[in-house]
Amino acid sequence: MTYFSSVEGSLFLITALVAVVSAVMVITQRNPVYSALFLVLTFCALAVLYLLLGAQFIAMVQVIVYAGAIMVLFLFVIMLLNLDRPLETQSKLKHQRLVAGVLAAVLLVEMIYLLHRGLPTTGTQPSPPRNFGTVEEVARVLFRDFVLAFEVTSIVLLIGMIGVIVLAKRHLDEKKAAAPERILSPLRKE
């Protein structure tokens, strides 16, 4: 019985196909909102692939950080900039399509060559430790071996947040000083 005839192998093939198709849709969509949503689907498919590899922590970070927080930020920026209207820009490169076609053909030839030749076999690969990639193991390494780097990173992020708050407050105070009536008028009842 081969790997791909098992349930895990079938799930890998389906998830890999979803990841590749959604990644292609990210770069072929003209609407940036649809492109961002296909990127979320790509991130989720990658999380399933990480789960199949036994890396639960990386899979959850993929969903929470990338598919969650960063994609919400991307969608917020897209909506803020109102990018759903068609862009009226002309290509800066005159032969861009020709160069892209040649590079795609070279990539296709390389892929056919590698598939025809086959992947090199180096014998058996050493199996990772039993709890490799689990949340417990990542936490143990992070808080035992890299605790100083972890704490320094948290302090740098805290300083960045405080800086943003101070700059935003200063900007708001300057606006209040420039036009106090315009800002305070919704708060006053007439």
Question: What this model shows, in words?
Answer:
The structure is a single chain. This protein is an all-alpha fold and 190 residues long. The protein has two domains: 1-84 and 130-145, Up-down Bundle (Four Helix Bundle (Hemerythrin (Met), subunit A)), CATH 1.20.120.1200; 147-190. The chain contains seven helices and no strands. It has helices spanning 7-28, 32-52, 56-81, 96-117, 135-144, 147-178, 180-184. α1 (7-28) runs antiparallel to α2 (32-52) and α2 (32-52) packs antiparallel against α3. The longest helix has 32 residues, at 147-178. The protein is extended and about 75 Å long. The mean pLDDT is 81.
List the helices and strands and how they pair.
Elements: H1 7-28, H2 32-52, H3 56-81, H4 96-117, H5 135-144, H6 147-178, H7 180-184
Short description:
This protein is mostly helical.
CATH topology of the largest domain: Four Helix Bundle (Hemerythrin (Met), subunit A)
> Measured on Cα atoms, how large is the radius of gyration?
25 Å
Please mark out the parts with pLDDT under 50 across 5 or more consecutive residues, or reply none. Answer: none
Total DSSP E strands: 0
Query: What is the straight-line distance between the termini?
Result: 81 Å
* SSE pattern, N- to C-terminal: HHHHHHH
CATH architectural label of the largest domain: Up-down Bundle
